[in-house]
Structure formats: C-alpha cells, structure tokens
C-alpha cells in the first residue's frame, strides 16, 4: 500500500539532478530530548573522509527539550559518517553527539558513557545484533492496512507473510532496506511481524559503539523513507492494546569468550550476572515496557527474570544451535522497541564483564 505523491517525487528528482558545483550537503542528525531524531543540513566545500574533519555545530535546544530558553545553544559533535541515500552523490549523513556549552554531555547523550564502557572492555570484543520491531501508521494514525473503524483477522497469517491481503507496507520496507545498504548501515535482514502492519529489521553484527550508531541511523532512514510514502512510524512497545503482539528490540550479545570453544560456560556466567541486575536493566529497557512484558505474546513478565534454551517466553533465550554447539551468543528479549541502544548495550557489557 503506497501513499507516494508521484507528482512531487518527480518534481524533486528534477532538482536533485542539478549539479552541486563541487559542494557537499551534510545532514547532521541527533537524538532529541524525547528520544526522537532531529536533523539539519550544512554545506561543505570538501568531501570529508573522517569525522575529525567535520565542524562542531549547534542548534536551539529549547525547541528540542534539551535546554532552557535562556541558555539554549546545544553543541553538535560529529560521531559517525554515513552516505546519504536521499540526496545521493557525495552527500553525507553525520550522526552527532549533543553537548552543553560547558563541554559536558547533554542529558540526552547516552553515547558518551557507552563509548567509555566499550573502550574499557574492547579486549572482550563485544558483538551485538538488534532486532528492531516497529509499526507503520497511515495518514489518519491508524495501523497501515487495518480496516477503517475495525480490526483485521486474528494474528497467525501475518508473520513473514506473502500477499496483499496480509502484508501491508512492503514497498516502504524494501525502500528502507536498500537505503540502509547504500548508507553503509550494517543491516542484516527484514521480515513482517506477528501483528499486521508491524515489521522488523535487524542490524548487526556490530562491535561495541557501532551498534548504537548503526541502529539510530537505521531508524532515521526508516522515518525519512516513511515520510516519502506519506506514512509514519511508531516505536511504541504496545501500539495496540488487547490480543496483539507488542514491539520489541531483542538484543543479541556475545563476547570473544562466548564465541570460542566451550563458550557456553561464559554465556551462562554472563546470564547469571545479568539476572542479578534485572531491575536495573528494566529501568533502561524502554518506556511503557510494562505494557509489553506481560508474560503473554512471546514475552517474559517484567517482574521476573528467567532464561532458557529456545524459550521465547524467557527474559533471555539461548538459541538451540548455540546450546548444541557449546558456544555463540544469547538473546535478551526484554528490551522494548523504543530503547536507546547505547543504554542497552552499555549495561549488557557492564553487567556481564564488570
């Protein structure tokens, strides 16, 4: 189901084909005070090859819930560069960190502390893979593909579905997938989810801080693609109340020790440590996660920590093939779809290796 205004798309293409006169457009993207994304563009006279070549910029933090009006300037420090699939050419997307005027990290900047933890434990070689679930909404704010004023048939035929009667929004999903590949995001797959109108993309494997960088940019690309189609995206963990699956951000995690022979011992040791800090993990595993972690719809209950082999009702699942091979990784199924990946990856490393 597509909502593209073809006339506007063709008009825009005419202008995007114009020569840029040797200039580069750099879209600075940052996380705002409400866990959303913002962006603005600057012109460069050169093609940067490293973030160190990019300027520090700023924005009005009083308009993004990141600073008071009397001291509103928030600084943007470039952290990572990606190719821009919307403008093409040598144009770039710059993921930036937010800092206050005194040089301290803005309260929304969780990348700063995450980077320190990842650097401290770099020898452990932490790898991550995150499964980002999300729900598409039409122009009226209703789940894409759902009948107006009603509900679709029960869950069952929608997961990994094929066909116009069960798969809603595939054109957006395919466009996003290709945009991620072009941009340099380590996207590893996509699939339709259990609730109709809900989809998932996977990012990883990524090492250390790259996990948060790549997931945030993948989210930015998704929202920009959806914008082109006249559709919006919600990352709420329970967008529809009732007998419908919620949306999560299952986080797969391993260290060098877990991936080596007999690594299952390191896996169990890590799970035991993480379980002792269950409440601390839940505190950073997303807003409104209690609406999702009910013990139903393939979740463990928010108040109880559990683990098991191939158990999708557990807090942490050890895949069956990992148990059989005696090494590999585990999947933390608790994180909600609206997590800040920097906070989740940081506490996983801190809990398991600290």
UniProtKB/TrEMBL annotation:
It catalyses: L-glutamate + NH4(+) + ATP = L-glutamine + ADP + phosphate + H(+). The keyword ATP-binding applies. One of its GO terms (molecular function) is glutamine synthetase activity. It holds the Pfam family Gln-synt_N. SUPFAM superfamilies: Glutamine synthetase, N-terminal domain, Glutamine synthetase/guanido kinase. One of its GO terms (cellular component) is cytoplasm. PROSITE patterns: GLNA_1 (PS00180), GLNA_ATP (PS00181), GS_BETA_GRASP (PS51986), GS_CATALYTIC (PS51987). Residues 110-354 form the GS catalytic domain. This is Glutamine synthetase.
């Amino acid at each position: 189901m597509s909502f593209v205004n073809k006339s506007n798309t063709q008009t825009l293409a005419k202008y995007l084909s114009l020569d840029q006169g040797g200039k580069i457009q750099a879209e600075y993207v940052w996380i705002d005070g409400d866990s959303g994304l913002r962006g603005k563009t600057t012109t460069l006279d050169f093609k940067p090859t490293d973030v160190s070549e990019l300027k520090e910029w700023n924005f009005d933090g009083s308009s993004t819930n990141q600073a008071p009006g009397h001291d509103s300037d928030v600084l943007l420090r470039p952290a990572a560069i990606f190719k821009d699939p919307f403008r093409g050419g040598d144009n770039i997307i710059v993921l930036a960190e937010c800092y206050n005027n005194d040089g301290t990290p803005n309260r929304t900047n969780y990348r700063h502390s995450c980077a320190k933890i990842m650097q401290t434990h770099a020898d452990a070689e932490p790898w991550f893979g995150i499964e980002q679930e999300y729900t598409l909404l039409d122009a009226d704010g209703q789940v894409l593909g759902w009948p107006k004023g009603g509900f679709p048939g029960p869950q069952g035929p929608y997961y990994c579905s094929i066909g116009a009667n069960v798969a809603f929004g595939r054109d957006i999903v395919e466009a996003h997938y290709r945009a991620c590949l072009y941009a340099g995001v380590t996207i590893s797959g996509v699939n339709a989810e259990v609730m109709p109108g809900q989809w998932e993309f996977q990012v990883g494997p990524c090492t250390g801080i790259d996990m948060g960088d790549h997931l945030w940019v993948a989210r930015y690309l998704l929202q920009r693609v959806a914008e082109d189609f006249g559709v919006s995206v919600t990352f709420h963990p329970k967008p529809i109340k009732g007998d419908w699956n919620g949306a999560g951000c299952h986080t797969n995690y391993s260290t060098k020790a877990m991936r080596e022979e007999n690594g299952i011992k390191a896996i169990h040791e890590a799970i035991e440590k993480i379980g002792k800090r269950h409440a601390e993990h839940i505190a950073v595993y997303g807003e409104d996660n209690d609406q999702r972690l009910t013990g139903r719809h393939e979740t463990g209950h928010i108040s109880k920590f559990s683990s098991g082999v191939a158990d999708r009702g557990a807090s942490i699942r050890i895949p069956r093939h990992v148990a059989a091979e005696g090494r590999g990784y585990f999947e933390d199924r608790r994180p909600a779809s609206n997590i800040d990946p920097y906070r989740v990856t940081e506490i996983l490393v801190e809990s398991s290796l600290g």
